[in-house]
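Q: Hi! First time asking for a complex rather than a single chain. Here are the components, and I think there are four in total. Is that enough to go on?
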Amino acid sequence: MNKTSFRRIKNDTYKLGLILLTIISTVPFLLILFFVIKNGIAVINWEFLTSLPKPIGENGGGIINGLIGTGILIIIATIIAIPIGIITGVYLAEYPNNLLSNSVRIVSEIFQGVPSIVVGIIAYFWLVKPMGHFSALSGSFALALILLPMIIKSTEEMVKLVPADIKEASLSLGVPYYRSILKVIIPASLSGILTGALTGIARISGETAPLLFTAFGDSFFNINIFKPISSLPLLIFNYSISPYQAWWAKAWGISFLIVIFILILNILTRILYKKI
Amino acid sequence: MTHIFQERQSILNDNIIEEATIVEQMIKKIINALINKDTNLLQEIIDGDEAKVNSLVIEINEMIIQLIARFQPEAGDLRSIMMIYKINGDFERIAKKSSKIAKSILLLMDEPPLKPFQDVPKMLEATISMLKDSITSFTTHNVQLAYDVCERDDIVDKYRSHISRELLILMIEDSALIQKSQSIERITRNIERIADLATNIAEDVIYIVEGEFIKTKKSKS
Amino acid sequence: MKLKLLNDKVFKNILIITTSIVLLIGVAFFITLILESTSSISKFGFKFFTSTDWDPVFEKFGALPFIVGTLLTSFLSLLIAFPFTFAIMVVLGEYFTKGFISEVLRYLTELISSIPSVVIGLWGLFFLVPAVRFFQITFGLQPYGVGIFTASLLLAFMIIPYAASIAKDAMRLVPKDLKEAAYSLGATRWEVIKQVMIPYSRSGIVAGILLALGRALGETMTVTMVIGNSHFIPKNLFSPGNTIASVIANEFTEATGDLYLSSLIYLALVLFLITALINLLGKYILKKIQINH
Amino acid sequence: MINSILKIENLSASYDDKVIIQNINLEFQKNKITAIMGPSGCGKTTLLRCLNRMHELTPNAKVSGKILLESTNLNDNFMELNSTDPILVRRRIGMVFQRPNPFPNLTIYQNVLAGYLLNGIKLKKQEADEIVEKHLNLVALWDEVKDNLKKHGTFLSGGQQQRLCIARALAMEPDVLLLDEPTSALDPISTQRIEDLIVELQKTVTIIIVTHNVGQAGRVSDFVAFLYLGDLIEYGLTDTIFTNPKNLQTEKFLTGKIS
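A: Yes, that's all I need. Here is the structure of the assembled complex.
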């Protein structure tokens, strides 16, 4: 009897302890959120969103260059990665066991775990060095390399989820293979693929490391993809390690924007995910 | 059950009714032959009708086996098909008996008739009405009529014992008539069997409809 | 009709060519790293890993401080993360597998893993660093604030949700009848967790830890922001240091000499190989678990 | 009179060098229902999938022998399917699968027209409406779904989905319809409705059905082909084979001694 009650107490203690640890582990997150919101909202205003940064010492100034830059970087990265990713994902799902698909699967898995800074180095050697200067394009390329394996993976999984007999049904109606893939398989798995893509975009929208030696940053308004370009995460980094308090405040403001953006993407992803 | 099954079942029913009609016709022909002294009719029964019934019997048997093999009918369908199988056999026997009767009568035709012989058509009439009603009860699933048929078996039995008694007296009086009397005796026995078979059919109808086997026939002492 | 067959062929070729391009990028990626680090490899060879000298002016490059820094931060963060990861794994994998609490926790952990590392670094710089400095002053340590420990704390926070979600999935794969068998023998829930579920999902937990380690090894921005960027082997857990990733982030654009750059790529190659190996191993374990189910 | 629409000559098929069916010779009668039956793994489905050249889509699949389909061209009695574009073959030989598989991203209306839509064949609105109504009527689904044509087919019951799939195959006006165990995923009542439908459809189309269910073969077919271990063991009228099979294996299979 005594032993049983001891066991029961032990059981309850462990449960309580584990739940407590779980709650503690979310504390830093809540703190981050609190700091980002508290310090961020303070600096957000129209000027912050729409004007260029001003030299240190002058008041005001904004981050429009970073906003535009991040937008351009993400859009180009997505344009590069999505078609290649979807096509490759379809190939992996359709021909799951030949030499090519097995090696690509390994490559894609390695890519998923490659530190993003190493990706930045590659983009530097492939694009920055030959072109002679930093550019938005090289930054986008680096981001695309990070996005690509995520899209490949989600496409492969989603296409595999489409029952094989759906494809057969299409083929049995005399529909050519390519149309069956494009008109049946891809639409059927599209919301899943998009979910994957959105998750990936959320991730690259906060990437900083690979941009350090590719997009590099620029304090002027620029939409030329062959020139260096600024980006929000880069601005956070540069401002936060600067010695100026005014710039620290801006770093918080930008963080706020990014976190909001990622939250929105997250909600979008959830909505899409529910539709699958 | 599928269309095919229903289709086949109705063909089967048509066939059994066709068979019934032929059998009924055979007995009617006997009566007519007796009344009109028409040997051709008897010849028709012996040469044509029996063979016709026999080929129908085979056809129906095959159909039933196929139906059971392919559709594995259950409950009402199963009862109906099994009873048709039995009825089919009954008709086959009725046809055989009718043919025997026809043969026996053919032999008696040339000779002057015996008095009890005049009762044979009446007995036949009673039998044919039983047969008719049992067939009607089958096609209309009329249990009441079927029970009625079973009851009427006694009438035919009475005819037969009546005729037997008369024949017995005749044979005691005149031993020359023994052979002839025995022929008539055989005929009445066959008619009585036909009536029994008609009763069987009626009992089968009761089983199809009510799902219960009954035996109305009293065991003969 | 001929046209349609032709289209099929074209389509299949597009699939193959695009996929091959991905393969090509992967191979070229690796080759680029090797080629660009050749001069450093041939100059320093294996000594690169044992030397503590990192002197761009005299073109002497030894990576030991960074390797030590990387290993220290990674393993320290794993150590810090482990109890929390374990707790989340059990809580989400067994106590609350469905319902509101599980949804909220799952959503929270998902959100944590999607916050950009640079934002976490920012928070670390302005909240954690002063906090650690306060702690160091209180205990009479040198008040750096930044350093190995601070970086490990942040890393731990970042890898907890990642490791926990993998481990939790493994835990949920435990067959129901196995659990029920244990309950029917009179075991308490904790005993079932400890004696049935954890042994059963051991390889999944290992995979989660491995993949989290891979993350910690390669994480750049947060570490760069709070580690203190020192070229010396850290004296203790609170001293500043540098990891492979942070040294690349700090010095790559300033690297003037060819050998300097090449040495940084050498570091990148090492980082790449280690993380690739750890990742493949983790994924391999996960795949094996999935096949078993 | 024998009126064949589809002939198989010396057909063999293998997969990964494993022979699945060998040297099969068979003729399918026009507007009749032929059931292919046999124990699992005997090659029924493979045989069926050879007929509309779906088998060759399986990796490492090999097919040899001739399959001849009654030609639409009057000069030529039969055309050989192996030398015909598979796309054309599949338009003349439709197929329905084990599990109901309506296209999830298409509406009921679009599902019936899927053969046209996916092939990029343009139809006038009126023409399309007619095709949809006609074929949904043909599968006795029109009254049940006519108010929900713009909805996706996923809310339909399994049996309704399967009928939708049959309508989809029929909308291409095929000459032959292949059914691969079309009721194996359905409940008994849906199964019965599909069986009724199959019998009804033979007026419009020649039907070849694979089934592992002896009863089903008995209920719906006119002819039966019995396959065992990749060989065609017996072929004939269903009535004959079900009551009096010539082959011992067929007898054993029908009486449940091999399955």
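A: Chain B has six helices and no strands. Let me know if you'd like any chain examined more closely.
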